[in-house]
Amino acid sequence: MNEYSRKMIKVSTTNLFREQDAGKPPVLDVRNLGIDFGGLTAVDGFEMTIGPTEISGLIGPNGAGKTTIFNLLTSVYQPTRGSILLQGIDTKGMTTSKVNKLGIARTFQNIRLFNDMTALDNVKVGMHNQIKCSFLASLLHLPSYYKSEKKANEKAMELLDFMGLADIADQKAGSLPYGVQRRLEICRALASNPAIILLDEPAAGMNPSETAELMHQIRRIRDTFQIAIFLIEHDMNLVMNVCEGIVVVNYGKIIAKGTPEEIKSDPAVIEAYLGRKNEVDA
Amino acid sequence: MKKLLSNKTTRTNTITYLVVTIAFLVMQILSSLGMLGSATKGYLVPLCAYIVMAVSLNLLVGVCGELSLGHAGFMGIGAFTGIVVAAVLKNVIAGDVLRLIIAMFAGGIMAGCFGFLIGIPALRLRGDYLAIVTLAFGEILKNVIGNLYIGLDSEGLQVAFSAGSVELLEGGKMLLDGPVGATGIEKISSFPMGFVLILFTLFVVLNLINSKEGRAIKAVRDNRIAAESVGINVTAFRMKAFVVSAFLAGMAGVLFGLNISSLQASKFNFNTSINILVFVVLGGMGNILGSVISATVLYILPEAMRGLDDLRMILYAVVLIIVMLCTWSPGVKNFMDRIRTSIRAKLRKNGKEAVNNE
User: Fold this and answer.
1) Nearest partner of A66 among A194, A261, A201, judged by Cα
2) Same domain, A99 and A203
3) Gap from B267 CA to chain A (nearest CA, Å)
4) Which structural domain, as residue segments, surrounds residue B200?
């Protein structure tokens, strides 16, 4: 993989499920979303819809409010204005854990794994709400406990295997290399059986070959689980190759929306990233 | 058996059960051979109670990561509930063992209920703030019990908050007399029952840690935000750990209370809470066997040094500091590790030489 050149790998962006998804309601429908912190408006008028198997990207300069939008979508913050419909249900006032049960899972920009637990246990924590075992059965280790635990182990190993992490299942999450931790976080998010998964800078800190692998994995996740993916990323190669739709934000507001081709040539986007031409001249 | 021991957690758990069982058998044998003095025998049941307290607090402090300074309060609730229940059931249930078990569960449930009630406001807080609030609740519980008057006569139980309000018929008995506490308690606790309670506690706590509930509790400790993001209701799991911990502390209280002839609420003060916390910290956060061992050593140590009078508490403090340095200071830890590896290397070398000589 050392001879890998960025231009060599081109992931197809055709969505095989687009036709069968036509007519289905969007998994995420955000309307006029906004949040103020004191007098500061961090996000304003954010709108977008994401179809059931769509891969979308959210880009923008540092401090544009991208992670704040993720925090709003997962109810870490409650919006000041607007509404979020997740699978048609308004998430207003819900806790993060409840929103997760409705089908949204995420990863974090600064990795948040359970460092003292093994990789396998991290994934099993992700499966928490899928494991059917009562409190009493857990306390007394009744037969149903062993049954549910065996099932959980199998499912968790399957997921780890899917992300190519099967051989590190017994290692402490905190001791794993950075790129592996990022993939484990995706694995944990997948374990909660979401309808949409939010990836906050999944390629940050990865080397080019790892990033190339990640691109394929992102598409494989969509193709295998048939879920929607919404990602923040600064690696434009990844965003342009993987995403079907892209939203660009700056200073908390949407400045452009469209396909990768449209975004690449959008003057507002170029301005946000590089500055205005006459300013450079002057 | 080989398969059983291949799993690391199963192995650690098995070792924990084995150590406790062997220690119990040794003490039982020594006791039946008459090699234990009556003073030593008297320490056995309180020791069991303190071990249970340490293990239950470790669930809260080590596994859940919440600092509680009011654990003795729950022990007190359990103790006095147990005393009342045991007295009420005296004429109903003949067997002491059955009566003790019922009293233990009653004490546990009562402490668990109070744990739940206190948890509702207290668990909105975290870290140092939770520690302060639990400290306050521990003192409140102690003082409420210290002002409680409970009498028992042929017509039933009478409960009041002032001494004059309890008017007993002839043959009635004050079970709990405010600040004077409970007197004339019938001793139905025994060392074997203490051992059974320790096994029960280990069973509950170790099972809990190795289940989905335990994983969720540990996840909340390691990273609250991430735990929420995968659908774990953080408050619910902190509450579960808090209630289970209070429940076990209540049971330990019953064992403790039904072992002495008179008991005052002031026994369950801040000092007791801190002592138990010291057992947990020195034994290692989240290390269950560590809690058992450190509770044993640190409970026996001051008692064994009674002959030294004034020097006793100074030596106790010195031991605490040394243990703390050995387990927590990185410098000393590295030094100990080096010694350990060199000893191991030497042993291996000797072993090889021995084989070669043959």
Assistant:
1) A201
2) yes
3) 31
4) 44-287
